[in-house]
């Protein structure tokens, strides 16, 4: 990797904008195929929305981190790079906090709710599983009910299906708070079903032991660091891209990409950043009308990922797994996030969408007080006194500006989805936000990097 003081001018077969897992995977595959690449990264590090860092003496996984059994593209890349995984701690009871504040310990996947609410939750899960099974995650807009499901919010779809408010809120939690990090009224039922389809089923999203199975020893950023090491000086940091210009030359495309650190001429360009950042780049010729419209209908959600470190994982002594859920609490999800072979205990909690809006109205001191008090509701008074406390706020990060992934507003997925991967001249699009399987996960980023590289290899070889 290099961080250029004076801008350099170089020629490559492919220039990739963004050194996250998708861009670096594409570069890795292209290089293995004998094509030359340059990767331009705005940040002073690689990894995109994966990042590991030491905060106040505690090593924290600030961004994406989990690996589930269905994420075969990521698992294959981890094997290729020699990166090992370990299981998330999950022994003992989980905790559920009901809308009335009642705290209940339980085991198994189903929340300890009334028989009527449990029946409604199971019915809604079965309904969503059936809808997801009828969908190809590569073409959600071809679902038999695509338009019907895309013009109603997930919030209102749930309530049209059930009058049990607790059941609706709990089912909504798995998609709205846990995944898309938007209020359930802000995205469509089709978007929710696509989220489930991308993970194999809605049941997989409900099962935290499946979706949050393993972690990478040394952190998920290790994927990007390992690939960047192989690419060496072809990764240029501190180089936000300002312009992409292209024309036809001798029967093929010729693009010139200008960044703060380099000017690269190439045959193809890969935009490997989330859609909300496309507008940070000036394109000449301008992108077509359809692209401009589509990008305005895609946005990232909002979440605070809370890291709380303690001298010991004290909750284990009480027979607790560290897992907790509550659709009504400030912290809606909490998990044991203790690092591999670390004697200290770490909890990770999530404050999403409108609850994050509220939290950011508070002073940092008051926000910490209320968030740790919410952790304590799940796991006991000791949770209110961490020795290290840190909030991952990706919404304020200049080169991310939001949470895990972009999703469409109401009606956007079936309207624009068919065009989201269409190349524009030499420009290809590659990020987890546009993935089918593995959507919004590192696995999706890897899949998109491999898909994009395969297309470019076919064009350029």
Automatic annotation (TrEMBL):
<dbReference type="Pfam" id="PF01593">
    <property type="entry name" value="Amino_oxidase"/>
</dbReference>
<feature type="domain" description="Amine oxidase">
    <location>
        <begin position="22"/>
        <end position="457"/>
    </location>
</feature>
<feature type="binding site">
    <location>
        <begin position="41"/>
        <end position="42"/>
    </location>
    <ligand>
        <name>FAD</name>
    </ligand>
</feature>
<feature type="binding site">
    <location>
        <position position="350"/>
    </location>
    <ligand>
        <name>substrate</name>
    </ligand>
</feature>
<dbReference type="GO" id="GO:0016491">
    <property type="term" value="F:oxidoreductase activity"/>
</dbReference>
<dbReference type="InterPro" id="IPR002937">
    <property type="entry name" value="Amino_oxidase"/>
</dbReference>
<keyword id="KW-0560">Oxidoreductase</keyword>
<protein>
    <submittedName>
        <fullName>Putrescine oxidase</fullName>
    </submittedName>
</protein>
<feature type="binding site">
    <location>
        <position position="22"/>
    </location>
    <ligand>
        <name>FAD</name>
    </ligand>
</feature>
<dbReference type="InterPro" id="IPR036188">
    <property type="entry name" value="FAD/NAD-bd_sf"/>
</dbReference>
<dbReference type="InterPro" id="IPR001613">
    <property type="entry name" value="Flavin_amine_oxidase"/>
</dbReference>
<dbReference type="InterPro" id="IPR050703">
    <property type="entry name" value="Flavin_MAO"/>
</dbReference>
<feature type="binding site">
    <location>
        <position position="241"/>
    </location>
    <ligand>
        <name>substrate</name>
    </ligand>
</feature>
<comment type="similarity">
    <text>Belongs to the flavin monoamine oxidase family.</text>
</comment>
């Amino acid at each position: 990797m290099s961080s250029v003081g004076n801008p350099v001018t170089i020629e490559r077969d492919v220039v990739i904008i963004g050194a996250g897992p998708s861009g670096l995977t594409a570069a890795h595959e292209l290089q293995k195929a004998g094509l030359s690449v340059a990767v331009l990264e705005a940040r002073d590090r690689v990894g995109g929305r994966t990042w590991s860092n030491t905060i106040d003496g505690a090593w924290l996984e600030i961004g994406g981190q989990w690996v589930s059994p269905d994420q075969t593209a990521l698992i294959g890349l981890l094997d290729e790079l020699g990166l090992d995984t370990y299981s998330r701690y999950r022994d003992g009871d989980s905790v559920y906090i009901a809308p009335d504040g009642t705290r209940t310990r339980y085991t198994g996947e189903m929340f300890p709710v009334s028989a009527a609410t449990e029946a409604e939750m199971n019915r809604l899960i079965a309904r969503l599983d059936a809808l997801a099974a009828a969908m190809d995650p590569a073409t959600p807009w071809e679902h038999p009910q695509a338009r019907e499901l895309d013009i109603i919010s997930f919030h209102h779809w749930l309530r049209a299906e059930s009058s049990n408010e607790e059941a609706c809120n709990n089912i909504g939690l798995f998609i709205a708070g846990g995944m898309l990090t938007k209020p359930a009224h802000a995205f469509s039922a089709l978007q929710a079903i696509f989220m489930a389809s991308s993970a194999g089923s809605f049941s997989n999203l409900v099962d935290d032991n499946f979706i949050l199975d393993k972690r990478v020893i040394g952190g998920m950023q290790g994927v990007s660091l390992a690939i960047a090491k192989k690419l060496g000086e072809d990764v240029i940091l501190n180089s936000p891209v300002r312009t992409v210009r292209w024309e036809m030359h001798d029967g093929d495309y010729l693009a010139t990409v200008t960044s703060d650190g380099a000017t690269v001429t190439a045959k193809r360009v890969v935009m490997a950043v989330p859609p909300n950042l496309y507008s940070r780049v000036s394109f000449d010729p301008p992108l077509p009308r359809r692209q401009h419209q589509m990008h305005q209908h895609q946005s990232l959600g909002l979440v605070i990922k809370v890291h709380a470190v303690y001298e010991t994982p004290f909750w284990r002594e009480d027979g607790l797994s560290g897992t907790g859920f509550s659709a009504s609490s400030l912290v809606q999800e909490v998990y044991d996030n203790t690092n591999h072979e670390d004697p200290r205990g770490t909890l990770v909690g999530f404050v999403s969408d409108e609850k994050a809006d509220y939290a950011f109205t508070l002073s940092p001191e008051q926000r910490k007080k209320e968030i740790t008090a919410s952790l304590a509701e799940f796991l006991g008074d000791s949770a209110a006194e961490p020795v290290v406390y840190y909030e991952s706020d990706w919404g304020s990060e200049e080169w991310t500006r939001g949470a895990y992934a972009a999703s469409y507003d109401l009606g956007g997925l079936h309207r624009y989805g068919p065009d989201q991967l269409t190349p524009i001249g030499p420009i290809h699009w590659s990020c987890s936000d546009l993935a089918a399987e593995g959507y919004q996960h590192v696995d999706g980023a890897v899949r998109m990097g491999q898909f994009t590289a395969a297309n470019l290899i076919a064009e350029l070889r």
